[in-house]
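Bug: token stream looks shifted between consecutive jobs. Job 1:
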Amino acid sequence: MTEVISKIHHRIDGLKDDLIDLTVELIRIPTTNPPGENYTECAEFVGNWLKIRGFEVEYIRGLDTPGDSDKFPRTNIVARIEGAKPGECVHFNSHIDVVEAGEGWTFDPFGGEIKDGKIYGRGACDMKGGLATSMITVEAFLAEMPDFAGAIEISGTVDEETGGYGGVAYLAEKGYFLNRGLIM
């Protein structure tokens, strides 16, 4: 198993530029909450990226949750890929919303600019960088372990910055994660 982990780490190292590009692209989609801007655009960006890699993708709107409207739909993305054999599911959850940029920025808060080896922008650390990391890590894992047992899910949920009511809370309340073989 140590050899496999080493191969995955090596593959991730080789995807560093892809990780940076993916993080920058996510930052450039301003998903400010409140009010909940561009959730659908961001969810579809993530979903399209994952579909290319073989994931089944679902978009789940947090209907009738605080802030949900036709102008600001609470669109979550949940993607799943089944392994070659039955087994448990590992789920990577990240939120796609960010708080308002506020004052005092020396970089465009939605520019995803890189300087001195750092990415600047709203969500670089919380949580678009984390979402990009999950996506790239799973890509590396699938390349090294195509016959894995179980399933892998990646979700990008909304409204974490204001309580998660249209995101994780909505999905849990609706029983979305029941009986999915999740390791929590």
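Job 2, same session, no restart:
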Amino acid sequence: MSIRVLHFGKFAFERTGGIERHVEALARAQAAQGAEVTVLAYTLDANSKPRRVDGVQIEPVYVQARFSSQPLALGLMLRARQLAKQNPFDVVHQHWPDPFAHLVARFIAGRPNFVVSWHSDIVKQRFLGSIYRWLAPRFLRKPDAVIGATKTHTASPQIDIFADSAHRYVIPYGIDPAAFELTPGVTEQVNKLRAQYAGRPIVFALGRHVYYKGFDVLIHAMRRVPAVLILGGEGSLTSELKQLAERLSTESVGQVVFAGSIPDKELPVYYHACDMFCLPSVATTEAFGIVQTEAMLCSKPIVNTDLGTGVNDVAPHDLCALTVQPGDRDALADALNQIINSTDLARRLGAAGKVRALAHFNLERMAVETIALYEKLLRQ
């Protein structure tokens, strides 16, 4: 009999984002392993309907409002209870931080095992976060297991109120390498993209345009970097970032191009076309950086920041990345220029990154190890 799993997947299958892409990859891989997987996902589209994707049942729930960046979807509790009543779940897998889903999970019928993937600490919402951390262990059910993508994740003191060391597990995020292969079709598109910039070096950065991504720092750094920055993604700061790039354009030796939201199927083109990938994040909200592993699979050197999070476990300094202090525009520019000016350095970092990505961030292994944890909890 297959394990029945319910993921509270934030905006998985509805919008792009690091956690969302992880949930999608994990859910698909678990379904491929024979699990019966359902994903409850927030959506901003009131017309979004339930559907099956690669063996995964997607149940979108409309977000009526937000409270301090937390989506509030009142239908989430009703739909979760309906699904559990129809056919009880063996495991309810949450993806934190997501306090509202934690509350909803408390009221799911039956006695499923509760598993949490700890993606990052609550950082920005200091006041509300402290209230949640006080209330949750007193009134909400503690998880049976907490999964972190790196040892740094599971060492977070914020986990202490939810799980002791015996209930913490490290299972690295997995990426499907086949999705990032340099096929003839991708090569053709790479050549077209590079031709647009007349052979100039290309720096690629990707993510939601929000404060902790540090894209403003990167745009400032590009004033001293003779390259093209292709910035993918969108968000609440997109307009502000465009205005900044325009304001600095007259004094910049670099060029900033806004690529907008890039479909997943087109991402390999950008990764293979670039000369390096930059993750300029400035806050510990950036706890892993899945985009780093994707760039590493494409043999690209990384420039990242010393956040003391899983970001630096994924791409360590001088192994497959150059790491600088968060918010340091000049150091960021120096690191980018160092890679531009040294083909040997770029090649060494890129080659080591691909080896590391293939060895440590395997999609099938992630699914197998997660299901093995579920089975262990069920036996207990």
